Every structure is written in structure tokens, then in C-alpha cells.
UniProtKB/TrEMBL annotation:
Source organism per UniProt: Microvirga aerophila
UniProt-listed SUPFAM superfamilies: Ribbon-helix-helix
Pfam family, one: RHH_8
Top-level taxonomy: Bacteria, Pseudomonadati, Pseudomonadota, Alphaproteobacteria, Hyphomicrobiales
Protein name listed in UniProt: CopG family transcriptional regulator
GO biological process per UniProt: regulation of DNA-templated transcription
Coiled coil: none
Length: 138
């Protein structure tokens, strides 16, 4: 039984983070942007992160396989969770990327069907659903 569906990410599906950099590092980035190697600071930072992720791709693949983690975007709909409940099954959310729990999933349904939540990346769920699952998040 499928407990979710894989959905393609859109270019606007991003998570904003804050990075504190020293003045010298920031100056180097600005110089590279000024020289035209990167279009802006964000372009440099994204490129640097992608290069590091690619550099460690083998470690990531081994870890994803070992931990049985789903890679990418995983969406859990109300229908998915109701089907799990009807089958007497509990859902273990293990995602590297973005896990989404649909807005129409009630806190009671989430609590009754989601046994654990482990997300490396971001979890999008209503505040009420996040609250009832807080003791199940790692």
C-alpha cells in the first residue's frame, strides 16, 4: 500500500535559511560576484552547497539506503492516512528533502496514523498537526 505520492518540486519550493559569514568570506563572495563568476551571493552559496552535496554523494546514497529514507518530496494526503487507518497500519515518515502533510489532515487523524516523523530537510504541516506529532519527531 502506498502511503504517499511522489510529487515533482517546483523551482519556487525552497526553504529559506540564514547563514552567518565572516567579513572576509563575504568579501571573497562579493569579489567573485563582481568578477561575474556568479550572478549574486545566493547563486554562489547554492553552487557551493551543491558542490559539497555532490562531493559526498556516495555517503548520502549509502546512508539513504541504510536508513530506508525516501529522497525528494513526499506528500501525505488525508486519503493516504485514512487508507492506512482502515488497514490498521501506522505510517513512519522518513524523508530526506521535503515531507508535506496535507492541510485537510486533522490532528486526530495524524495522531492515529503517524507513528514517527524523521525529516532531514523540511516538514510542512499545519501547526495543529505538528503539535500532536511533536513527541514522535526525531
Amino acid at each position: 500500500m502506498s502511503t504517499g505520492q511522489v510529487v515533482r518540486l517546483k523551482g519556487t519550493d525552497t526553504e529559506k535559511i540564514t547563514v552567518n559569514l565572516g567579513f572576509v568570506d563575504l568579501g571573497h563572495i562579493d569579489l567573485l560576484v563582481q568578477e561575474g563568476l556568479y550572478s549574486n551571493r545566493t547563486d554562489f552559496i547554492r553552487t557551493a552547497i551543491r558542490n559539497q552535496v555532490e562531493r559526498h554523494a556516495d555517503v548520502t546514497k549509502q546512508s539513504v539506503s541504510r536508513k530506508s529514507v525516501e529522497l525528494g518530496l513526499r506528500h501525505y494526503s488525508r486519503q493516504d492516512l485514512e487508507a492506512a487507518q482502515a488497514a490498521g497500519e501506522m505510517v513512519h515518515i522518513r524523508v530526506l528533502g521535503l515531507a508535506r502533510i496535507a492541510d485537510d489532515v486533522t490532528p486526530a487523524l495524524a495522531r492515529a496514523t503517524i507513528a514517527s516523523v524523521e525529516v532531514l530537510g523540511a516538514l510542512h504541516a499545519s501547526p495543529a498537526v505538528r503539535a500532536v506529532l511533536s513527541d514522535r519527531m526525531r
